[in-house]
Amino acid sequence: MPKKQLSVGVPATLNLKAELERARQECKADSSNSKSKPKSSPYTCMGGQNMGVQSRAQKDKQALDSERLSRAFTDARARQILEEKAHLYDLLSTADSDASAIRESRLDEHRIAKILEESPVDFVSKQIEHLRRRSEHRKGDRDAASSSLGQTSHSDSASMVEVVDEFGRSRMVPRSEACKYRQRPGSAAVSSDTSSNSDSDASSGSERIPDRSSRGIGYYSLSLAPERRKEQISTLQQLHNNTVQVREETAISSINKQRQLLDQRRAQLRSSHERFVSSSAGAAHAP
């Protein structure tokens, strides 16, 4: 049976062409939009990055830098405090330090008072101990010098002889070393009790009068007579002891003066520290 042909009019043909053209335009627009959009890569858990990681890393870096600066400042401050304490301890631990040396230091009164209050060291006792040790050391040196002088004065005359050296000084040396000294004209190089010159000098009691301008100020012309010579040595020893005693008394008076100045300085520091503490407490309780 033959198919029935449908009659298509002009309006239907125009409508169909319009629909085809509209579909063609939409297809072109969709294809252009798909090309302009970037292709998004698929998300992977290993290659991704959480939100806020960079900001947190920046904050951590700033905190680390501030901690390092704070630690460096703390170390510098602690070192400064230790240096101040060491400087003050050096000034107060010796007996030669006085108030002027403490005053000339780079520390202020409040800082010195605070260090002294916090310190467990008794500097006054340390200074007294230092003075006692120094006095004992000087006394030992003086006793050693006195014993050496006594041994020299009481030495055996048979083994020691008197000679005159090249400077014109009279000295007592062993007999074995007497030949080393040059004999001066007009005086015997070696004298003993058996020589005729010594006997005549001892009997007459004559003494040699040296030229002090050429032999020096420390030259003493001792008599050849044993009794007179012993008396002269005793006088010299007494003068030496008197000189040492005067020096010790002068040193002790100076030490006592330094101790008084140190006590006054400590009292001033304590009073200034108390005033500072009271003023700070009053300012804290003030409305």
Automatic annotation (TrEMBL):
Residues 57-68, 260-276 have a biased composition (Basic and acidic residues). One of its GO terms (cellular component) is nucleus. Residues 31-42, 187-206 have a biased composition (Low complexity). Residues 145-158 have a biased composition (Polar residues). InterPro entries: CCDC174-like (IPR025066). Keywords: Coiled coil. Residues 23-68, 131-160, 175-216, 257-287 are annotated as: Disordered. PANTHER family: COILED-COIL DOMAIN-CONTAINING PROTEIN 174. This is Uncharacterized protein. It comes from Coemansia thaxteri.
